[in-house]
Amino acid sequence: MKIFVYAVIFLCSTVSMYAQQAKELASELKNPHSEKVLVVAHRGDWRGAPENSLQAFANCIDMGVDMIEIDLKKTKDNQLILMHDDTIDRTTNGKGKASDYTLEEIRKFYLKDAEGTVTTHQIPTLEEVLNLTKGKILINVDKGYDYFKDVYQLLVKTNTIDQVVIKSGYGLEKVKTDNGDVLEKVIYMPIINLDNVAEAEKMIDEYATISPVAFECCFSKETPDVLRLLRKIQQNGSKIWINTMWASLCAGHDDIRSVEQNQADDTWGWVLEQGASLIQTDRPKALIKYIESKNRH
Q: Which is catalytic among the residues 33, 84, 121, 297?
């Protein structure tokens, strides 16, 4: 009997800890004055499990990642599932588009790992991911703008609104027109290409009216204009999100240089110097360790 009681107490305390953890992460995300940096795992821990799989996200929770990035597609019967590509060919043992299959049919396929080996993991639904991560970690819906209102309905159903960021590269007026008052009920983040200086400046000025929590900033070269625009975003009260998965997204200050070439200070360190509060990476474990060494995680 005592063992049962202790088990219940442990389970309750663990659930409470995770709920508090998610609340603290959301608070950090929304606090423009916080010095902490949030680590975003691109498609989950895809080195340890298939990308966009439940296991990949569970691994991220265990390693202390702050946010996972996910991609969405719809099945033939209008169920939201996790899938990056236009087809399921690369990541599963199936062929064709997700929209070619019902959810029941798509459950017959299995995800491949990073080496292309078929695993026992199935394609998860968005609802399954929300239930798995509820109270534990933040979520970034990247390829999912086309399903904005559908996503919102699931966030309400699972009570995860404060944990999920929805993004797009569209201007504010289009997003308002497309989504109405739903925009005001979710955490929304614009994506901008700083290489296109005039367009980026226009979007920064336009979005200044609603002060989004952050801007996802992509840039292939380090130029005076890029650095100026990064500062302008922060001066307007929004945070900076920088992607370090590939050199073309962050002017060469990428994960490969950080980890494989042992140049973390010149890459992730440079990103921190530009004021990044969120860093999306393919090397979450290594990035967490680096940011902890700077006392910023």
A: 84
The answer to whether 33 is a known catalytic residue is no
Nearest partner of 22 among 52, 65, 53, 69, judged by Cα: 65
pLDDT at 12: 47
* Whether 84 is catalytic: yes
Catalytically annotated residue among 42, 121, 253, 297? 42
Categorize the per-residue pLDDT at 1 as very low, low, confident or very high, splitting at 50, 70 and 90.
low
